[in-house]
Amino acid sequence: MLRYLITRALSLGASLIVASLVIFAMIEVIPGDPASFMLGLNASPDTVAALRDDLGLNGSVTTRYVNWVGGLLVGDFGTSYTYRVPVSELILERLQVSLPLALFALILSTLIAIPVGLVAAARRGQMTDYTIMGATQMGIAVPNFWFAMLLVLVFAVQLRWFSAGGFPGWDNGIGPAVKALTLPAIALALPQASILARVMRSSLLDVLHQDYMRTARAKGLSVAQATRRHALRNAMIPVLTIIGLQFSFLLAGAIIIENVFFLPGLGRLIFQAITQRDLVVVESVVMLLVFAVILVTFLVDVAYAVVDPRLRRPA
Amino acid sequence: MTRLPAQLWIGAVLSIVLLAAALISFLWTPYDVTALNIADKLKAPSAEYLLGTDHFGRDLLSMLMEGGRISIAVAVLAVGIGMGIGVPLGLMAAANRGGWLDEIIMRGNDLIFAFPSLVIAILITATFGPSATNAIIAIGIFNIPVFARVARGGALTIWTREFIMAARVAGKGKARISVEHILPNIANLLIVQGTIQFSLGILAEAGLSYVGLGAQPPTPSWGRMLADAQTMIYSTPRLAIAPGLAIVVMVLGLNLMGDGLRDLLDPRIRRARE
């Protein structure tokens, strides 16, 4: 297990290095001169030169890359060109919205999906199963930001239970903040929960047909006992993959949903940065998002090994 | 041979109707969507305009038909990219489980996978500006590791079965076993994933266009139309509801079709049902 962890950790590090190279190349090398790109066509040569100086663009590509990564490691994400504040400050501020939103949605979706999938599998071929499967089909088909717009229409405009958007901040107490994140989290969770419930159901049904389940029944276990002791653990492998896969959807989804509800999260930050050509912000926020996903993938791999010992040893 | 599952029919009808509408729009639409007709702006649905008009007086039905083209094309091409590259990679990785090839492929996958399509689109857009082509590339790249992972995961469990052992004893090589025994056994997984990725492609295109990273005006796409409709959602919710429903029906149709196909193609499931 320890050896497994070490190899995984090493490849985690390697992935991060390659990812940073890709992002650096996309943002700083391919566009040519980032300074003139950021300032647009009408900038005078003097302003461009000043910005080049400001951004430290006069060094070689290698020096710039090393400086950027070195900065990231000690929490220095550079200075935003438009906001004139350290990017790390901007990110920390925006994370207070985006991270709780993604987690809120992940928890909602898992809490809904696993029991629902279990019930559907247990009642396979019956009315309950068909109803659940129909509902999840709809849930998958609905774009989350459109669902968000409908939620606003019903719960904010018609019923006035929630505000249509905005975020009061955590300083005014947890209640109002959580309330502001509730509709966005529901919108984010709906499609994910639907997918997860279906995966849970089909994975469990797959496992129920395995020989070891027949053996378990033959030795006298009831269906419920056999499911609990043998099927669930095996059925969880695909479910874990999907939960891992979903994290990046949730992050990306959160970025879009933030636009529907005017939440001051990472999403709003990055879109504003793109329109204002604030490459320093784009580069660092993208790196942060990528880091988060790589870390979660690593954790899922480790979780795999815990659930299924066969995956720990090499073939 | 059992008869075709009902959901296959329902799904096929739903998605073919929208696909046909999108194809017909190449030849004919009720109104020209590039012509602005301010005098007729925000007309309610009537015999003249079946779904009404938008704030520029453009016919909503015509826009939905044309919008479908971009949305469907982006999703189809993106699934093609993902499956064409991802499945062979996944099979290779599984056949060499624990080896260096497996390690390289899977780490490469994790790496691409760490870039959600939205993030790839953001990177491309920050450098090259937004377009529908960028959306295809972004979603397609994101599909690769999804198919590779599903193929590898499915293949790994098949590799532990006795009949694979028999094939190996019979002297078949890894590549031949992968194609002859593994692929048919994971086809159902791939079809299910294919429909999920297809629907996700439609949804992702909608999301990208909605935030301005996909199809650009005046090209209509379902996501673009939703973005345009958002500011008027309080006064004219119809403008936001119509393109949303188009997306839902398309995605629902594709998913039902995929499920139906799975039932049809997988004798194991069929036997279990009977």
Provide an overview of this structure.
Chain A is mainly alpha-helical and 315 residues long. Chain A has two domains: 2-73, no CATH class; 94-308, Orthogonal Bundle (MetI-like fold), CATH 1.10.3720. Chain A has helices at residues 2-29, 34-39, 45-55, 61-73, 87-122, 127-141, 144-158, 174-208, 211-218, 223-261, 266-275, 279-307. The longest helix of chain A has 39 residues, at 223-261. In chain B, 72% of the residues lie in helices and 0% in strands. In chain B, helix 4 runs antiparallel to helix 5. The two termini of chain B are 12 Å apart. The model of chain B has no long low-confidence stretch (mean pLDDT 83). At the A-B interface, helix 1, helix 6, helix 7, helix 8 and helix 10 of A face helix 3, helix 4, helix 5, helix 7 and helix 8 of B.
Key structural traits:
heterodimer, A: 315 residues, mainly alpha, MetI-like fold, 2 domains, 12 helices, 78% helix, B: 274 residues
Task: Present the secondary structure layout.
The complex is a heterodimer of chains A (about 325) and B (about 270).
Chain A: H1 2-29, H2 34-39, H3 45-55, H4 61-73, H5 87-122, H6 127-141, H7 144-158, H8 174-208, H9 211-218, H10 223-261, H11 266-275, H12 279-307
Helix pairs in contact in A: 1-12, 5-6, 5-8, 5-10, 6-8, 7-8, 7-10, 8-10, 9-10, 10-12, 11-12
Chain B: H1 6-24, H2 60-95, H3 100-113, H4 117-128, H5 132-159, H6 162-169, H7 174-210, H8 222-230, H9 238-265, H10 267-273
CATH class of the largest domain in chain A: Mainly Alpha
Profile the largest sheet of chain B. none
Gap between N and C termini of chain B, in Å?
A: 12 Å
User: If you consult CATH, what is the topology of the largest domain in chain A?
Assistant: MetI-like fold
Tell me the number of strands of chain B.
0
Which CATH architecture of the largest domain in chain A? Orthogonal Bundle
- CA radius of gyration of chain A is 24 Å
Number of helices of chain B: 10
> Into which percent range does the helicity of residues of chain B fall?
over 70%
Beta-strand residue percentage of chain B:
under 5%
Q: Whole-number radius of gyration of chain B?
A: 22 Å
Tally of DSSP β-strands of chain A: 0
Assembly annotation:
heterodimer
CATH superfamily name of the largest domain in chain A?
MetI-like
Largest sheet of chain A: none
Residue share in helices of chain A?
over 70%
Low-pLDDT segments, ≥5 res of chain B: none
Average pLDDT figure of chain B: 83
What is the average per-residue confidence, as pLDDT of chain A, rounded to a whole number? Answer: 84
Q: Note the run of SSEs of chain B as H and E.
A: HHHHHHHHHH
Distance between the termini of chain A: 15 Å
